[in-house]
Amino acid sequence: MPDCDHAPAQAQVDQAIEWLVKLRFDTPSPATERQFQQWLAHHPHNAKAWQRVSSLSDELAGLPSDLSRRTLDGRQRQRINRRDHLKLLAVIAIGGSVGWAAREPLGLPALVADSRTGTGERRRLQGSDGSQIQLNTASAIDLRYGAELRELALLRGEVSLACNPGDNRPFRITTRVGAMATRDGQLLLRENDQGLLLAVRRGEVTLFPASATPRVVRAGEVLQVSPRGAHALASLHGDPWGWTDGVLSVQQMPLGEFCAELARYRPGLLRCAGEVAALKVSGTYQLNDTGQVLQLLTRSLPVRVDYRTRYWVSVGAA
């Protein structure tokens, strides 16, 4: 049975925001409304996420009249995308009566993070200690360097970290599912629906260092860590490091999963029809042009790509 006691995951909050944009800032079709009801009933956390997001949106009446008018003007509705609405929700939450505990699950700390990326954006950073850091699409981190400790907090999304082994200070990394520590590790962290994906390419990383049974993760290992701390070796259909080189590299990945991965790098919605979701995709695709990737799919698979709008794309049977 689904766990109803915990707060919705960031991915579920993101989905709720997508639905809010579609249902309130567009004219939904009957099919869209049915899909929304199916999503709402799929998991109790979906309903919780929707309640929180929609209640914050309902506080639009408390916004300055100019902002509220520009936001709700029918002529502007088609111009409001998910990223804009995230900013709008930030204004609502900060200016409204909700407390920080209610705002945190909406990802608002990511909006004021030390470093962040938008949808489809990737960013390279260098820490003051010489460590190399990369942020993937729609990600956010905080960095702190002290006399005795280096710290990175993953607030949202995905990050790779290549520690400078010449610095003897321990490097502590915090995430929603727990903490880890390293001195010379090269690691990748990605939030997902199951919790957190941890991949280590170099050195060692200690998972849950303050626990009674810490887990040492060595080079070559890839773990899936649940929100409750359970962990197991991950089974993947692609290279988790591919995006650090600007590519999506997959082997026999189901098309439905592939479209979900590609959707992370595109604004708007990318849907895959169930009738073609099981088709297998292999290859290396450049992330700088997701439209071209979709066209390549039509050449290698019996599928077609339909654009309802630039931001509403469906992949179905040819």
Provide a descriptive summary of the structure in words.
The chain has helices at 10-24, 30-42, 44-57, 65-72, 82-95, 100-103, 108-111, 255-263, 290-300; strands at residues 115-116, 123-126, 132-135, 140-145, 150-156, 158-162, 171-175, 178-182, 186-192, 195-202, 204-207, 215-218, 222-225, 231-233, 247-254, 269-272, 280-286, 303-309, 312-317. The protein has a seven-stranded mixed β-sheet. A seven-stranded antiparallel β-sheet has the order 2-3-6-9-10-13-14, with no helix packed on it. A three-stranded mixed β-sheet has the order 16-19-18, with helices on one face. It is globular. The chain is 29% helix and 31% strand. Strand 4 (140-145) and strand 5 (150-156) form a beta hairpin. The chain is built from nine helices and 19 strands. Helix 1 packs across helix 3 and helix 2 (30-42) packs across helix 3 (44-57).
Give me a quick take on this structure.
With 318 residues, the chain is of the alpha+beta class. It contains nine helices and 19 strands. The chain has helices at 10-24, 30-42, 44-57, 65-72, 82-95, 100-103, 108-111, 255-263, 290-300; strands at residues 115-116, 123-126, 132-135, 140-145, 150-156, 158-162, 171-175, 178-182, 186-192, 195-202, 204-207, 215-218, 222-225, 231-233, 247-254, 269-272, 280-286, 303-309, 312-317.
